[in-house]
User: Fold this.
Amino acid sequence: MYQRILVPVDGSALTDRAIDASIGLARQLGAAITGFVAEQPQPSGQRPRAGGAFRLVEDVDAMTPEAARRVLDRFAAAARAAGVPFEGHHACVARVDEALLAEAEARGCDLIVMVSEGRGAFGEFLYGSQAKAVLSGSRLPLLVLH
Assistant:
C-alpha cells in the first residue's frame, strides 16, 4: 500500500513518538522511511519562541547540521534495529510546510507521518499549526499523531 513514508523530526520530546510510531507502521507495511529535519534560520543571538514547531532544540547555538545529524542518526539506528530501510535528510528552509511537501515529492514518498503538539485553538492562533499547513498543501495522505 505505502512504500516510502516521510517523517519530519526536530529533536524535541515528540521526536521519540514519531520515530517509534513510524517505524512500527513501516514494519507492518514493509515500507521505507525518509526522516527529515527542516529548520528555519534564526537570527544570531535570538531565542526561538516557546512552542515553535520543528526546532531541533531550545538553544539556538545547538541548531546546526551536526545537531540535525544526531537526530537523524538516532532515527536511523532505531530503524536499522527494526529492519526498516531508512534515509535521512536535513535542510534549512524559510517555510517548513513547503519544505516537507517538496521533500516528500523529491524522495517519492507516498505518506507523511507527523506528530502534533495538539495545542488547541488558542495555541494554533498564537503559534500556527505545521500539520494543518502541510495538510492543506499536500496531495499525499497525512497521518497526524497526537
Helices lie at 13-29, 65-82, 96-106, 120-127, 130-137.
